Amino acid sequence: MKVNKRRVIVVACAAMACTQAAKQKQETVKADSVAADLAKTATAPKITDTAGVVKAYIALKDEFLKSDVAGVKTAATALETHLAGIKGCTETATVAHQIAAAADIKAQRDLFLVLSKDVIDLVKGGKFKSAPIYVDFCPMADGGKGGYWLSAAKPIENPYFPEHMKECGSVKEQIN
Hints:
Blueprint: H1 2-43, H2 50-66, H3 69-84, H4 90-101, H5 105-125, E1 133-138, E2 147-151, E3 170-175
Antiparallel strand pairs: 1-2, 1-3
Helix pairs in contact: 2-3, 2-5, 3-4, 4-5
């Protein structure tokens, strides 16, 4: 009987150990699944205010049409605020900040080239309802390399050369 009791105890302990191991494995799998979901959420950009970014960007573009350094600074600061609220847009918000900190219109326009590429990508990847947005291109901008910008209207109003070549450029794409 003593031997049978020992076997029963050993079998019971083994069964309990297996049950505990299975539970731990389930909990580990569950924890890994939760961690993977959190990692996806943390790395995927969360676009929440694309419409606000577009509105602020268009206001900035309009200030470039006036060649108003102070107006550009104010509009760039507003755009920076909108961009800062969107996950994944930290670098773009930094470029907007640099535009606001730049002392002259030429430096601001050089940074606007970089900013425009990022905002165009953001708008293309965003899902929001708005009137058509146009991706415009000037082949003369950036020392002849060309430069893009967004516009709310189809007629060309070039923010890179508003004084001498305001109508230089073409619509390359329409985003709905």
